[in-house]
Amino acid sequence: MNPTKTTFCLDCRALRWVEDWNETGDERLAIVLGPCGHVIERTARLEWAIPTRERARVRLVHAMPERERVATS
Questions:
Q1: Does the CA dihedral 40-16-12-8 come out positive or negative?
Q2: What is the residue range of 23's domain?
Q3: pTM of the model
Q4: CA–CA separation, 15 vs 21, rounded Å?
Q5: How many C-beta atoms lie closer than 10 Å to residue 21's C-beta?
Q6: What angle do CA 19, 45, 36 make, to 5 degrees?
Q7: Is residue 57 part of a domain?
Q8: Is residue 27 domain-resident?
Q9: Which is nearest to 17 in space by CA: 8, 29, 26, 30?
Q10: What is the band of 24 on the pLDDT scale with cuts at 50, 70, 90?
Q11: Does residue 50 lie in a domain region?
């Protein structure tokens, strides 16, 4: 099964599928949504969200040394 790529259309206030996209300029994409036909613009560069310590919900644990094994069944 091939999943359909969807995004939110602000004009329709609904999820829409991506019909087509074109590069419109420096790191910009024009994305045509279906079935409404509205066009949204997005940046074409990759952005990575790096959590800060205040917002991170990551729990760090100490690695167990090789000599301390845990028995499992």
A1: negative
A2: 6-43
A3: 0.54
A4: 17
A5: 16
A6: 20
A7: no
A8: yes
A9: 8
A10: confident
A11: no
